[in-house]
Amino acid sequence: EPVAAIVEAELLSCPGVADAAVLGQPDEEAGEVPVAFVVRAPGAAVTEADIAGHLGGLLAHYKQPKRVHFIDAIPKSASGKILRRVLRAQLSA
C-alpha cells in the first residue's frame, strides 16, 4: 500500500503523534478511502482536527484520512511489521 506508507510517514511527522498506521477502507464513491489509526504521544492531546490541519498542506485531498481512530498501540509482528489484518478486524467490528 504505497499511499498508506506516504500517509503514515506524514502522520509520524505530526506533533503529538507517537505511532500511526493507515488502511484503505472500501467507499462507494471513491472506491477506497484512507483511514488512520493513531497512537498519541505521552501527554499529547492531539485531535482529529489537529491531524487534518497538519496533513492538509502536505497531502493531496484523496490521500487525507477520512477518519482517525485513536488507539493505545499499533499491533505489530515480532519483526515490527504493522499487522493490518488486526486493524482491519477492528474497522469491521
Describe the structure.
Helices cover 31% and strands 27% of the residues. It is globular, with a radius of gyration of 13 Å.
Question: Mind sketching the topology for me?
Answer:
Layout (H helix, E strand, L loop, with lengths): L1 H11 L4 E11 L3 E10 L7 H9 L10 E4 L13 H9 L1
Task: For this entry, give a set of tags.
93 residues; alpha+beta; three-stranded mixed β-sheet; 3 helices
In short:
By secondary structure, the chain is an alpha+beta fold. It is about 30% helix and about 25% strand.
Structural class of the secondary elements? Answer: alpha+beta
Nearest-angstrom radius of gyration? Answer: 13 Å
* Model regions low in confidence, pLDDT < 50 over at least 5 residues: none
The SSE string, one letter per element, is HEEHEH
Q: What is the straight-line distance between the termini? A: 22 Å
Q: What's the oligomerization state?
A: single chain
Shape designation: globular
Approximate helicity band:
25-40%
Average of pLDDT: 94
How many extended strands?
3
Largest sheet: 3 strands, mixed
Proportion of residues in extended strands: 25-35%
Contiguous helical run count: 3
Q: Order the strands across the largest sheet as they lie in space.
A: 1-2-3
